[in-house]
């Protein structure tokens, strides 16, 4: 599962993140909250050091309250979230905190992988060496210089008759 994290924090004048749902910036930290369906009250999900952690907390709460058809910040992580069975605010807060911690661990692991080995897809493969390209092209050019095989006429047809042609070199 591959997810690229947003390194720049682009904020509107309201403090809301332009990419993630349900989070906003407050005093340099990120807070997450969600409105309960058919109510005016909100469930406070917590304050987190990164936008990704707050977005993961929002995702778990959205799944618990709105179901699987809701818009998520990280849809690839749905299988790793521990969604509470009942929509009680205390259970949702606990699950949101766990999701935020798992996002923190995932991000640290991804950052560590980048620092150690870089991206795994940037390995150089010398295709010319694998296929022996210089010699392959020379061999192909040499093959074009080969004259056609001699054809021995075995039947009584004249050479100009191409009505029943089954050989490329009979022309």
From TrEMBL:
It comes from the Eukaryota. CDD domains: AP2. One of its GO terms (molecular function) is DNA binding. Pfam families: AP2. Its main location: nucleus. It is found in: Nucleus. PROSITE patterns: AP2_ERF. GO terms for biological process: defense response. Keywords: Activator, DNA-binding, Nucleus, Plant defense, Transcription, Transcription regulation. The keyword Lyase does not apply. Residues 19-75 form the AP2/ERF domain. InterPro entries: AP2/ERF_dom, AP2/ERF_dom_sf, DNA-bd_dom_sf, DRE1A-I. One of its GO terms (cellular component) is nucleus. Belongs to the AP2/ERF transcription factor family. ERF subfamily. PANTHER family: AP2_ERF DOMAIN-CONTAINING PROTEIN (PTHR31839:SF85), DEHYDRATION-RESPONSIVE ELEMENT-BINDING PROTEIN 1D (PTHR31839). This is Putative DNA-binding domain-containing protein. It comes from Helianthus annuus (Common sunflower). The lineage of its organism: Eukaryota, Viridiplantae, Streptophyta, Embryophyta, Tracheophyta.
